[in-house]
Design brief:
The structure holds two protein chains of two kinds.
Chain A lengths: L56 E2 L14 E5 L9 H5 L5 E4 L2 E5 L9 H5 L5 E5 H4 L18
Antiparallel strand pairs in A: 2-5, 3-4
Chain B lengths: L21 E7 H12 L3 E4 L6 H12 L6 E4 L3 H13 L4 E5 L1 H6 L1 H9 L5 E6 L13 H6 L5 E4 L3 H18 L3 E6 L7 E7 L1 H8 L15 E2 L9 H31 L6 E4 L6 E5 L4 H13 L4 E6 L1 E3 L3 H8 L4 E6 L10 H12 L6 E5 L9 H17 L9 E2 L4
Parallel strand pairs in B: 2-3, 2-4, 4-5, 5-7, 6-7, 11-12, 11-14, 14-15, 15-16
Antiparallel strand pairs in B: 1-8, 6-13, 10-12
The chains are: A mainly beta, B alpha/beta.
The complex binds iron/sulfur cluster (2 copies).
One iron/sulfur cluster binds next to α2 of chain A.
Chain lengths: 153, 413
Amino acid sequence: MPENNTGVQGAQGASGASAAPGARPCIPTTTIPVDFRDATARFGDWDVADFPVGMAGVAGNSVDYVTGGWRSMRPVWDADKCKHCLLCWVNCPDSSITVADEQMTGIDYDHCKGCGICAVECRFDALDMRPEHECHDEPVLDAAAEPEITQGA
Amino acid sequence: MTDTTPTAVVGAAAVDLSAVEQRTIASTGNLFVAEAFRQIDPDAVCAYPITPQTTIVEEFAKFVANGRVHTEYVTVESEHSAMSATIGASAAGGRAFTVTSSQGLALMWEELHIASGLRLPIVMINANRAISAPINIHGDHSDVMGARDSGWIILMAENAQEAYDNTIIATRVAEAARLPVMPTLDGFITTHSIARGQVADDATVKAFVGEYVPDDSLLRSTSPVMVGAFANLGPTYMKVKKAERDAIDASLPIIGEVGAQWASVIGRDYGHVESYGVDDADLVVVIMGSAAGNVRAVVRRLREQGQRVGVVKVRTYRPFPAADLAAAVSGARAIAVLDRAESFGAPAGPLALDTLAALYGAGIQVPVRSYLYGLGGADVRLDLVEQVYADLADVADDGDGLLNPTPRYLGIR
Ligand code: SF4
Ligand code: SF4
């Protein structure tokens, strides 16, 4: 395991032959989970034996990985109508309803997939599904301004 | 004649040898396996019934219902879900088992690779059975051969006793090698016939398998892990696959050592291959599974008539014990490999291909004949086995080519 890999946790079981009777030993491959968020963990440069067994990593790295990019419909929250019942929070399959002190605070658009479950579940009409292109500040592409596509030479 | 040199790759089992008690029972192969499951008491068993393994999960369900195990027993709606749930339970840190057969194993195909790729120490019993079409519920190795390249350790039992022993051995092997293990037994012939065998006392099995402490787990709250990471760019995927290849290669001595430890507890040997009559044999048959006994019976009879014949049974199929097999057949003048599964379009049956590679690697150049037998539970009559040895005698004498151009179907013209 390269030394520059931070986020290492609880190495155990790689002891092999020295295992005590009854202990569960492991083949000599590291079992230290890797923190894939660590920019210095250049696992592309690692040797085969540097990889943790089964490529297990430190949990929780999807926080930093933006997966909301394929959303075509966006839930838009109306804070005035919201009763903070948190039905949306319970039902969101992507943990994208943000909450603080038992109050809804908004939607994590970096991870929301636009499935619309929250809007269906909300009993107070506080979530509205809107086409993504209507929600952007930038204007959508003007078809008339598109360059003409010509065929052949 | 096996080359299983224990090399201290696994810790010792905490068994008090003076307290080991064995009972002789008469039971079906499936009930032997269910008994091993009860004694091991896994954290989770997630399964779906399919003939001919059903009586394993049926019997185990009784153990659960009667409070004789602590297992979380998850009944699912398909084998795809059975393996998915088993993977989840294993990744969560539990000792997770399942059981399947035939179409069920086929339905698990994508999950098999996930279990091995994530290096989860799952144990899954397979009751070997034919694959449709045409539909057939009887014993052959067509299903196992579909899982052959999926990264699972595969152990082939000849009889109920080996199925019981292999289940216990597999538990330790899986956890030491960090790979899933598939102990198999032949459908109906072994799963459903009543056979005599010995089971160890509960305390011995419990001590032998020990308590499972996972290296990492989804549910360990102090340091939870992520499993199933993405390895799309650069050589990362290939490196992780190389680690998997290294692990299954490294598991061969682990299997040998755990097998030897179990042998020292219960007095039954474990060899990757098991030879009978090969020391002076000119003509050798290589085979796996329940029909090994039929071949042994023929070998005994022919040897009484003075013929120099022998048989090698392969018990560890993946990883393939190439060196052990080559050593066992090194004196032969002609070899027949009997396969109970097709590898359609291949130059020989699957076990024959492995045997050819083992011989080539050892520099042994003798004629090899590939046979298919017993597909869909077709009888392996002793006269058919005698015919194989008669063929081999001709091959050894006139040596017409090293390999037959296409596998011969035994008993079928
Ligand atoms: S379900 Fe509706 S009312 Fe309830 S917290 Fe969510 S947005 Fe607010
Ligand atoms: S649209 Fe779907 S993913 Fe997005 S916040 Fe609502 S429930 Fe969650």
